[in-house]
Design a protein that fits this description.
By secondary structure, the chain is mainly alpha-helical. The chain has one domain. The chain has helices at residues 8-74, 79-94, 100-110, 119-127. The longest helix has 67 residues, at 8-74. The model has no long low-confidence stretch (mean pLDDT 87).
Amino acid sequence: MRGELMPPWLLTQILSAVITSVAGLIVGIVSQKLRSSQHRENVAREMSDAMREGMIVLLRQKLIDIHEKWVIEQGYVPVEIKRQADDIYTAYHTLGGNGMGTELRREILKAHAAPWPTVSQQESEITS
């Protein structure tokens, strides 16, 4: 029966199926985008945490190196090295480091201060 119009109930069912399918597709796409975005945010957060922890480790090691070289080996710490250690500690503490770094900083700043050796002092140490 060509030329006959589609019954209204059939047209309604077809339109309902198309709208439901399109809506489902849109919800699926939006949901996937959100999951993908959340995954990227989680990966970025994990990378940021790892970088922060790595930086804390490196800054703590620098404080250990300064402490060992100057406080333990030399018995004094030049003022500029104390300033450097304090700056390192500030970054270390801001990133969340504490404990051992705090104690190292305290000992570095408490140590006897001495100026950098002059060239003549360095030469006399070499010839001695």
